[in-house]
Design goal:
Length: 92
């Protein structure tokens, strides 16, 4: 197997791993999406685009989550959570 095929195989493996969400009660939930799925989910939420029932459920899971483990150490879930919770109230 040449180097390009190995790299492609690694990318498929990393990209296909689910995002693990930790919920307030300690349970975990997963979101599966290939490639830049979370980025597209964030983009659709920010733009107010029409989203599917599955995407709405995933956004609700993200909103309720307290932590996330993303493949490659990404932080997209944190950005989505910040957007979903809106600005913090000053003085609160």
């Amino acid at each position: 197997m040449n180097l390009r095929r190995r790299i492609a195989a690694l990318e498929r493996l990393l990209i296909s791993k689910p995002v693990l969400l930790t919920m307030p009660d300690g349970q975990t939930a997963t979101i599966r999406g290939r490639g830049i799925y979370l980025v597209k989910l964030l983009s659709d939420a920010v733009r107010g685009a029409s989203i599917s029932a599955e995407q709405s459920a995933e956004l609700d899971l993200i909103r309720k989550s307290t932590d996330a483990v993303e493949p490659g150490g990404g932080r997209i879930v944190e950005l989505i959570r910040i957007f979903l919770h809106g600005p913090a109230n000053e003085g609160a």
